[in-house]
Amino acid sequence: MIIDEIRKRSDLVDLVNEIGFLPFFSCRIEGFSLEENVSYEAWYQGRWKGRVHWDAWDWKGEVLREKELVYGKFFEKKAGFISMKLWPDFCNYRRDGYDFDARFDDGIAAYKDKGVVDFINGSGATLTREIKNGLNYKKGGNKGFETVITRLQMQTYVVPVDYEYSKRKSGDEYGWGNCRYDIAENYRGDKLCRSAYKRSPEESLDRIIKHIRKALPRMDEDELRTLLGCKKKW
In angstroms, rounded to a whole number, what is the distance separating the alpha carbons of residues 154 and 75? Predict the structure, then answer.
């Protein structure tokens, strides 16, 4: 356990701002996730108001709407939170010196990735189902949407900005929520996303590791580097 218990959203925000980032679910580093540090009530005990609300599951949408943290699939293709302070270094490290267009021009980004990026750029912040419909990701059409959208998140080019729910005629929400995605720069701003570009990607990685090991000095650095995806291509 990192702290006694995360009981409310402000606990989560304070913790991520202190340590730099935190996976949502348990990961290769034992005890290093929201799942393993959240109170039982916030994780398991749902509240009924049109749909069942589990507090910890709703926090991701709330921190995105309030722009308190960055959330997405950033850790071995699984979800987690990143502080605004470390986000520029994540962008710099994960992009490895490339804005998306330069990556595509150099032949190291897939056509399907460009299709999603271009669609979001042309449409603005877009729901998952709208991207799939617009790019024919359906039975008999294109395949591999989850692979593409996860890769674009791992590379920090595309980020979730909200989770929206279907509504009954009564106005009650239901279902698991549909993610709305945007280009990171469109939502978070060019200045923030690119403010670490003056450093090398390796310098940004070192800054990320030093930051979290200052807060959690017992964390195994090799496991941490693996979690961060060192030397991997997404």
Answer: 7
